[in-house]
Amino acid sequence: MERVVSPVDGGEKKVQTIGIIGLGYVGLPTAIGFLDAGFSVWGVDISERTVEMVKRGENPTGDPDLDNIVPQPGTDNWNITTNAAEAVPNCDVILVTVPTPVTIDLKPDLSFVASAGRTVFESIKANSNTIVVLESTVYPGVTAETWVPIIEELGLEIGTDVTIAYCPERFNPGDPARGVRQVARVIGCPDEKVGARLVSLYSQLTCEDVRYVGAIEVAEASKVIENVQRDVNIALVNELAQLFPEIGVDVEDVLDAAATKWNFHRYTPGVGVGGHCIPVDPYYLIQRAAQVGVPTELITAGRAVNRTMPNHVAKIIHELLYQNGVEAGLGKALLLGWSYKAEVGDPRETPAEPLAASLMEKGISVSAWDPHINDDDFPENITVIDDIYSAEGFDIAILVTAHKACVELQWERLIGQMRNPIFYDGRRVMDLQLLQELGWKTFAVGRPIK
Ligand code: SAJ
């Protein structure tokens, strides 16, 4: 297909057509955002299922905020395909929003960045100077180290055929107030003029600040440390949640008191830290630091604390069942919520999984109920509860995900279904006093077991 040549605007081609590679939690809302901002959009995904659902105007992600905004079939300027070779020649700017997970041994997995880059660069038109922007979270250096060798191998010339840049996605799944059109962005690019063009482009997507920050590595580093900082801060309150009950103090009382200070940043302890960002991104910076021989003891320790939380909570649950006369090997636990985060249906890196595994190792059977998660997204060894008010004979109900649907359960009804009316608040969001008045024996992460 001949490339649609955009009209010239002050010597620079006016950007009219945007390509998005990867239509997941970030790519799909980004594609919709640019369509709503008046651009022609080509969306590409390797998954036939994803492409067919998006073509039908359906939401293939677990983020309910996207349920009713996927453009319907026949929408103008909205082109969805599995074929990057079809899409790329039409695009002035291409955004790559593919996963950057970690491997089983917690090392960065850059295979998606490399393969997506290759499919784009293979289809770029000579002399088009197409701008290709990586949005996925990586460590400083990845964009250039991964993409430049491919560009050179394909005989493309940077600045003539293609220019690369980095603009980290900042998107908060399940938080409509912080979607792609409401968050500030930073842009790194070796070519200042292209950087300025991207500032102007993203300023049409979001109403918040868009800033050119210079080198690609500055933008890459800013994003990864945003999430490292969050992980370390959560680790601190999780460590305090293990300490304070041992000295007879509820960590939440302490955090509430400390939060009266103007520069105390409030985080909440929980059963663990899940998702595709916070528990993953620190390993990217740890890897980069290891490459240059700089220790990252604090970042590494923060990850270790957060990873121990599910097992810490399982030990407490085991103790609670024993103290309440539940025979070893006969305990039955009901997990309320499985998703890593409230109001989304995303099981990636959910702490529910290690929590369930640890409970089962202690001879406690585990069932789970999560209205946001499809039955086939649960592990095989978990008994899935579809109707919470049919759940019978459990010894303990554990709040793992603070979905509204969990918090607002009919607790006076549920207690009648329990074999033992024990409740454990793994997210510190419940009114425990109220539950106690209903007859529940209440416990919570970071709270002394009286
Ligand atoms: N969590 C805690 N205690 C806290 C906050 C979170 O245990 O005080 C847990 C959550 O339960 C969850 C995990 O940490 O299991 C991650 O929660 P999150 O709120 O950080 O949610 P994410 O993973 O969706 O993070 C996204 C990130 N956005 C991007 O990477 C673009 C992150 O940078 C945002 O800061 C975060 O949303 C946000 O602001 O909520």
- Classified by CATH, the class of the largest domain is Alpha Beta
Radius of gyration: 24 Å
- Amount of helix: 25-40%
The largest beta-sheet arranges its strands as 5-4-3-6-7-8
Annotated CATH topology of the largest domain: Rossmann fold
Mean pLDDT rating = 95
Along the chain, the helix and strand elements come as: EEEHEHEHEHEHEEHEHHHHEHEEEHHEHE
Rough outline: elongated
Biggest sheet details: 6 strands, parallel
SS-based structural class? Answer: alpha/beta
Give the strand tally. Answer: 16
Show the helix and strand layout.
Blueprint: E1 8-9, E2 12-13, E3 17-21, H1 27-36, E4 40-44, H2 48-55, E5 78-81, H3 84-87, E6 93-96, H4 111-121, E7 130-134, H5 142-153, E8 162-166, E9 185-188, H6 192-202, E10 210-214, H7 216-243, H8 251-258, H9 281-291, H10 297-323, E11 332-336, H11 352-361, E12 365-369, E13 383-384, E14 394-399, H12 404-407, H13 411-414, E15 418-425, H14 432-437, E16 441-444
Parallel strand pairs: 3-4, 3-6, 4-5, 6-7, 7-8, 9-10, 11-12, 11-14, 12-13, 14-15, 15-16
Antiparallel strand pairs: 1-2
The protein binds ligand SAJ.
Ligand SAJ is lined by residues 169-173, 226-227, 230, 234, 267-268, 270, 273-275, 277-278, 340-341.
Write up this protein.
This protein has 450 residues and is α/β, with parallel strands linked by helices. It folds into two domains: 7-216, NAD(P)-binding Rossmann-like Domain (Rossmann fold, 3-Layer(aba) Sandwich), CATH 3.40.50; 299-444, NAD(P)-binding Rossmann-like Domain (Rossmann fold, 3-Layer(aba) Sandwich). The protein has 14 helices and 16 strands. The protein has helices at 27-36, 48-55, 84-87, 111-121, 142-153, 192-202, 216-243, 251-258, 281-291, 297-323, 352-361, 404-407, 411-414, 432-437; strands spanning 8-9, 12-13, 17-21, 40-44, 78-81, 93-96, 130-134, 162-166, 185-188, 210-214, 332-336, 365-369, 383-384, 394-399, 418-425, 441-444. It has a six-stranded parallel sheet, sandwiched between helices. Strands 13-12-11-14-15-16 form a six-stranded parallel sheet. The model is unreliable at 1-10 (pLDDT under 50). The site of ligand SAJ has 19 residues, from α7.
